[in-house]
Design a protein that fits this description.
Order of helices and strands: EEEHHEEHHHHH
Largest sheet: 3 strands, antiparallel
Radius of gyration: 19 Å
Strand order of the largest sheet: 3-5-4
Structural class: alpha+beta
């Protein structure tokens, strides 16, 4: 085989890490080329923390965060972030969940307020749960017809067995059907904490 190329030096931007009194770790990377701020909150829980038989819980919990809070409807959340010309999103992977926002520098306070609201006080409204469940079930139907997705799921099961890494992160028809509002509340309460 050919010899590897010489290693190239990599220069990462300077950053600061601070731990707030409540245990939340904040990492700041400053790049001032554009007047925008990108903030991402990472939660150390994803599909690997789904309880047995409740596969898809982390994914749907993350999807429901921006679909309404105690103080705002999903439409209000969308209107607020659109009005400031920003972005807001949430999702989950195998080992983590996230919420992110991008805003103009002068809109950072409002964007962080909105981000804080969806992370801390999601409503988990029944109609939103059902809507997200139907979307997830539809995604399973589409995925079942995609050879690449099916092969990936089979390989994960062969490699990891019934360990959480071998289970489908998006859930199964029975697991998605079994999810209740209380499951979302419990998952959020257990994992969406500052530390």
């Amino acid at each position: 085989p050919p010899r590897p190329l010489a290693a190239k030096s990599v220069t990462f931007p300077k950053y600061e890490i601070r731990t707030l009194p409540n245990g939340l770790k904040a990492v700041l990377v400053s790049q001032n080329e554009q007047p925008i701020v990108s903030a991402r909150m990472l939660i150390r829980a994803g599909a690997a923390q789904d309880p047995k038989g409740k596969e898809g819980l982390a994914m749907l919990t993350a999807a429901l965060l921006d679909q309404g809070t105690a103080a705002r409807s999903s439409a209000q959340i969308a209107e607020e972030i659109d009005f400031m010309g920003g972005l807001l999103g949430s999702g989950a992977g195998t080992d983590l969940s996230f919420v992110n926002t991008v805003s103009m520098t002068d809109g950072l306070g409002a964007a962080l307020d909105l981000m804080s609201d969806i992370v801390r006080k999601p409503a988990f409204a029944d109609q939103e749960i059902e809507r997200q469940r139907q979307q997830a079930l539809s995604a399973l139907t589409v995925a079942a017809e995609d050879p690449d997705t099916v092969a990936s799921q089979v390989i994960d099961r062969l490699v990891f067995g019934f360990h959480p890494y071998g289970m489908p992160a998006g859930g199964t028809v029975p697991s998605l059907a079994s999810l209740t509002r209380q499951d979302f509340v419990d998952f959020h309460k257990a994992w969406f904490v500052p530390n």
